[in-house]
Write a structure and sequence with these properties.
Blueprint: E1 6-14, E2 17-22, E3 28-29, E4 32-33, H1 41-53, E5 57-71, E6 74-85, E7 99-104, E8 111-112, E9 115-116, H2 119-129, H3 135-138
Parallel strand pairs: 1-6
Antiparallel strand pairs: 1-2, 1-4, 2-3, 2-7, 5-6, 8-9
């Protein structure tokens, strides 16, 4: 049995929008990354979101897990959680990403503004939209 590296991703919803980042492959990405040694998934995700975006989030329910082929024959196990903001929505990007966008959830698809949105991420976003959220997360 093969063991794949793990990346923890957050679906951050706020006022009817989802936070998408632009990665080095010019694809849409969700904030998150790899846990450090001994770090649990939720702690890793809160740290990664803060490092990549400057945002504080509360980590909610596990949404899904799937294998993602990052590059040909290079797979990562993605573990996605729903997240809600624990502060303001002003993104301060790290140098890991070249852009950020709060995309209205009604504009979601496998391609958004000419960039690919991986199907697994789209599935996680749709699952997050079905979770109970605070009233400010549902506002459009």
């Amino acid at each position: 049995m093969s063991v794949y590296p793990v990346s923890i991703k957050g679906v951050v919803l706020h006022r009817g929008r989802v936070l998408l980042l632009v990665n080095e492959r010019d694809e849409w990405d969700l904030p998150g990354g790899r846990p450090e040694a001994g770090e649990d998934h939720r702690t890793a995700l809160a740290r990664e979101v803060r490092e990549e975006t400057g945002l504080s989030v509360d980590i909610g329910a596990l949404l899904n897990e799937h294998l993602f082929e990052v590059l040909p024959q290079r797979f990562v196990r993605i573990v996605s959680f729903g997240c809600t903001l624990a502060g303001d929505a002003d993104v301060t990007l790290s140098d890991e990403h070249s852009g950020a966008h709060w995309l209205p959830v009604d504009e979601l698809g496998l391609s958004v503004a000419g960039r690919r949105l991986p199907a697994g991420y789209l599935g996680a976003i749709r699952q997050a939209m079905d979770q109970p959220l605070s009233p400010s997360d549902r506002e459009v």
